[in-house]
């Protein structure tokens, strides 16, 4: 199992869009996936077509992590119902439902015990090959809790001045957190999102990011897509949305997932 946090210290860069795009790619590849919606806004939960029932949301599982029974409280995404079974069985895309309740942990003063809460919850996630954690756009307790539970951190950035500067700060924060709390944590790379091919500013900033981050700048870049809000609003995976634009974007997320997981050879073979 690979646990990957999708992070950004700047809001509005499409972090949740990248999370759901990767989830769509994993589902299409037959990778058993859990999405943990750690953002108090719970946008990933909505985009994944989840209707919360009697299950505990992730905030309440974090409140009592040793007693939380993850398998009993995840909710199957409606996306899985649209995906036919493959050779390894039915498609699996589950969600640990987000809620505003998680906000009680989004503060800067969490101690080591609190930082282990999500790790304790995910101890029951052995049935999955991939766990994607959609983090809030901050470096408070929830993001640090996610990093403590993760193998890797994928950063999302737009090719703009403030986003690039925020990415550099996040890279430094990951290194400090790794030294103090999580020696096995590694940056999985940086996803350049909402790229406009005709923008000279974006071209300049992408070159700047290549100079600053080298191989950590993941390929492919994800272009700005006019109908992305429509896809999310319909709670559809991009792999099932009609049209050449969605088909092209789905292929980009397939490649991005493969490159993101390159260090996990067992999973990599499933997504190629």
UniProtKB/TrEMBL annotation:
It comes from the Bacteria. SUPFAM superfamilies: P-loop containing nucleoside triphosphate hydrolases. Residues 5-227 form the CobQ/CobB/MinD/ParA nucleotide binding domain. CDD domains: ParAB_family. It holds the Pfam family CbiA. This is Cellulose biosynthesis protein BcsQ. It comes from Pseudarthrobacter enclensis. The lineage of its organism: Bacteria, Bacillati, Actinomycetota, Actinomycetes, Micrococcales.
């Amino acid at each position: 199992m690979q646990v990957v946090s999708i992070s950004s210290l700047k809001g509005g860069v499409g972090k949740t869009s990248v999370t759901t795009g990767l989830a769509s790619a994993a589902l299409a590849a037959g990778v058993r996936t859990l999405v943990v919606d750690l953002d108090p806004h719970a946008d990933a939960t909505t985009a994944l077509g989840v209707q919360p029932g009697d299950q505990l949301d992730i905030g309440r599982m974090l409140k009592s992590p040793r007693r939380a029974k993850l398998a009993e409280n995840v909710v199957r995404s409606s996306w899985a119902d649209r995906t036919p079974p493959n050779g390894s069985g039915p498609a699996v895309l589950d969600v640990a439902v987000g809620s505003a309740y998680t906000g009680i942990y989004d503060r800067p003063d969490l101690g080591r015990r609190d930082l282990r809460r999500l790790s304790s919850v995910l101890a029951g996630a052995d049935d999955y090959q991939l766990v994607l954690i959609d983090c809030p756009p901050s470096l408070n307790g929830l993001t640090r809790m996610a990093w403590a539970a993760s193998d890797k951190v994928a950063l999302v950035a737009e090719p703009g001045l403030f986003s690039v500067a925020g990415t550099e700060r996040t890279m430094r924060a990951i290194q400090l957190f790794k030294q103090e709390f999580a020696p096995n944590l590694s940056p999985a790379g940086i996803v350049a999102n909402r790229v406009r091919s005709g923008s000279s500013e974006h071209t300049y900033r992408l070159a700047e990011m290549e100079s600053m981050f080298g191989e950590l700048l993941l390929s492919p870049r994800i272009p700005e897509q006019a109908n992305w809000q429509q896809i999310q609003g319909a709670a559809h995976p991009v792999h099932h949305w009609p049209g050449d634009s969605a088909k092209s974007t789905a292929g980009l997320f397939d490649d991005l997932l493969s490159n993101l997981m390159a260090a996990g050879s067992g999973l990599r073979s499933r997504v190629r």
